[in-house]
Amino acid sequence: MQRRSFISGVILAAAAPALPALPSRALKTDPFGVGVASGDPAPDGFVLWTRLVIDPYGADGRGSMPSRDIDVKWQVSTDERFATVVRDGTAVASARSAHSVHVELTGLQPGREYFYRFRAENAVSPVGRTRTSPAALSPLTFAIAACAHWEHGYYTAYRRLAEQEPDLVVHLGDYMYEYQPNGYTAPFGNIRTHSGGVKCATLADYRMRHAQYKSDPDLQAAHAVAPWLVAFDDHEIENNWAADVSASNAPAFDQRRAFAFQAYYENMPLRKASVPKGASITINRRVSWGPLARFHLLDTRQFRDDQACEDGVRAGCDDRLDGSRSLLGKGQHQWLVDGLRDSPARWNLVGQQIVMTQKDLKYGPGREVNLDSWDGYAAERDQLLRGMAGVSNPVVLTGDAHIHHAAELRTDFDDPSTNVGVELVATSIASDGDGYRDTERMSALRAENPHIKYLDQRRGYILARLTDTELTADFRTLDYISRRGAPAKTSARFTVPSGERRFA
To answer: Which of 149, 204, 415, 420 is disulfide-compatible with 388, CB 3.0–4.6 A?
Structure first.
């Protein structure tokens, strides 16, 4: 068997010590084809995840696994050679749950690196690395990623992210896409093809699509290197859905959401608190990194009012200014406001999916905005930004846009003296293909929106470093993803001193 060793961000193969076999029938093929993962770290533990899949393209959505439940042995060690195993146990990979495994650990030491692995009958998984959050003030390096359309390119950005060995990865949605093969074509053509032949609608469809995405070795490397915090956007279910409203008028949309939520939970390192209940799932939650940082993860889909003025990019939509319209829903809005107000953390990081800053897409007089973003819910945004004025170092982390943004958040976007925080928007990992640099258009957009300090249409991710005195954000970009092997580089770096609420 092989194990994974994490040395300077490179995964190397070496002989693994024996992991005790479980008395059961032998699987004929290695069932760990979609890798391992961990998530939601706490001072005393985290979630460990795997899913047994023999064939990610199995049409039944079960990965061609047998219909029986399978016992899975797990181990946690303080060293990557598993010489010092500190916890172990057995979980059941249930056929009813697509043979997924979620292990919630407690009782571990804070601020420690740990290694983990699984065994299913005669097969041993790759080794993953994870960590508990610290109890004391401690620096944090974390990556921000979003939007990885399988057909649009290779996942090299995930590999480059893994090589930097962050302490934590924050993934802000569009982890997978629901479209049928070639249902959404990248500007320069598609590179790979979706499985299944149809747009995702059934539980088997969503399960198979997740398995296909997770079969990618670069994505597996990013999961194996650090714990993740995950929250979905729209494409995990359907493009631009809003609460119980299907943007495509899909039939039986409650049932479709229930299928999508079940598959999402089965394929993500989430705690039992997120086990879905039919067409409902709890994804908004808080995760702290000692006294340094608190992550407030939002759900910007389940509770929103339908997009104003029939959605899209539009000018002159007065309905978007209606104070009764909500993106978060009353309960989640209050949960966020209370949590920000009462947070003892030095930095408050709001992880969410759609661009919060005002973004006028029309050059010259008038305003044209994307109604699926916070611009379509302007009154609630204004209320939220006013509330951030008394919050310690608020930073909004965002995905969805497929373009890197560094923006300053203001209660009046025309007045630089009203800054209340900053927003870091990660471009896509793969969606929209190679990307490009339309410097003339980006310059014009920045001139129209002077609070937006940086825009870049290339693919990549953000690597952020957080201390008690400052946040530094490196906007990492790749020049291409239509073929493998692209290097990543830091195309821009922004710093936010503690207490300043703006870029230095």
So the answer is: 420
Report the C-alpha gap between 126 and 253 in whole angstroms.
37
Report the C-alpha gap between 299 and 258 in whole angstroms: 16
Q: Are 160 and 166 in contact (CB under 8 A)?
A: no
H/E segment holding residue 493: strand 488-497
Measured at the CA of 92, the angle between CA 268 and CA 67, to 5 degrees, comes to 90
Helices 378-387 and 330-342, packing angle to 10 deg: 20
Instruction: Identify the H or E element spanning 101.
Output: strand 100-104
Whether this model's pTM surpasses 0.90: yes
**Cα-Cα-Cα-Cα dihedral of 74, 78, 84, 89, to 10°?**
-20
Q: How, if at all, do strands 85-93 and 70-77 pair?
A: antiparallel
Q: Which residues of 213-249 are buried (b: 16+ CB within 10 A; e: fewer)?
A: bbbbebbbbbbbbbbbbbbbbbbbbbbbbbeeebbee
- One DSSP character per residue, 354-383 reads S--S----SSSSS-EEETTSGGGGHHHHHH
To the nearest whole number, what is the mean pLDDT of the chain?
A: 94
Which residues fall within 8 angstroms of residue 267, CB to CB, at 6 or more apart? 34, 51, 98, 100, 207, 210, 211, 214
* Burial degree of 385 (CB within 10 A; 0-12, 13-18, 19+): buried
* Selection from 306, 331, 320 nearest residue 374 by Cα: 320
CA angle at 413 for the pair 410 and 414, rounded to the nearest 5°? 135
Sequence-distant (≥ 6) Cβ neighbours of residue 141 within 8 angstroms: 164, 166, 167, 168, 463, 464, 465, 466
Q: Could you tell me the two tokens for 287?
A: 């995760």
Query: Burial of 212 by CB count in 10 Å (0-12 exposed, 13-18 middle, 19+ buried)?
Result: buried
pLDDT tens per residue, range 313-358? 999 999 999 999 999 999 999 999 999 999 999 999 999 999 999 9
HSE, CB side, 13 Å, CA atoms: give it for residue 130. Answer: 34
In the prediction, which pLDDT does 26 show? 64
What is the rounded CA–CA span in Å between residue 252 and residue 250? 7
| 3-state secondary structure (DSSP) of residue 86 | strand
464, 444 contact by CB (below 8 A):
no
